[in-house]
Amino acid sequence: xxxxxxxxxxxxxxxxxxxxxxxxxxxxxxxxxxxxxxxxxxxxxxxxxxxxxxxxxxxxxxxxxxxxxxxxxxxxxxxxxxxxxxxxxxxxxxxxxxxxxxxxxxxxxxxxxxxxxxxxxxxxxxxxxxxxxxxxxxxxxxxxxxxxxxxxxxxxxxxxxxxxxxxxxxxxxxxxxxxxxxxxxxxxxxxxxxxxxxxxxxxxxxxxxxxxxxxxxxxxxxxxxxxxxxxxxxxxxxxxxxxxxxxxxxxxxxxxxxxxxxxxxxxxxxxxxxxxxxxxxxxxxxxxxxxxxxxxxxxxxxxxxxxxxx
Length: 310
Description:
It is a single chain. The protein is α/β, with parallel strands linked by helices and 310 residues long. The chain has eight helices and 17 strands. The strands form four sheets. It has a seven-stranded mixed β-sheet with strand order 5-2-1-6-7-9-10, with helices on both faces. Strands 12, 13, 14, 15, 16 and 17 form a six-stranded antiparallel β-sheet that branches. It has a two-stranded antiparallel sheet with strand order 3-4. A hairpin with a 5-residue loop joins strand 16 and strand 17 (291-292).
């Protein structure tokens, strides 16, 4: 079976590796253009491109796929590459570009998507983050037959994964990436899979994570803030201001106590929230490294009576 693969980050690269290990022929990979990254802002290839190049697979990096759009030249070149690839199926995982209808129609078996949620829960760009933030007990992978909608296609396979009380997006991402790789191989190896339309109820949208969401609102309940910190690790973290200094808060745990939201009510430091309190356990100063609160406090003590901007 000839499988064209479209994806960009590490989540997708794990699936590509699983397909190659399973013996599928991958004649072409689509991924996002190289982007500036790191302190030097040098162009960096995506995780998927790096895996494809290492395996000797041709790579196409169109900026767009609309044949009549802004990047029509790129789209036309991608179309020629896809036609030459003569794919039985396209597998898509966190690619980052919307596939127009001409792409969906091109492979003989259509396009399959590896989506990191239990659809229709958390359609959209950030399903792992939003599941943790919302306090969901479980999430998973849905292998979906793609259509023109936003994660609206029929479901082919579902794998479930419990969300642990200490899960960050990083940890949950890695388990789901592995599960996605296993399920897409299973889906392609199956002689036939039943297509199940998504339920009309229970639909939610996982909007893209914005940097502005990192600001900690101490008026919120402690449990909500704690989940957001785990959901926003590794990006964008939590941001709080104390005495005019902007600090990063990476991890916290629920604690006893009450006070005005943002008030440091005990050593630790323990900070009062709109409901309950949090003991901050991992902190970072501007230009410094993230680390345990005990190490942070040696350089910058935080004492009861101080107050974070609420």
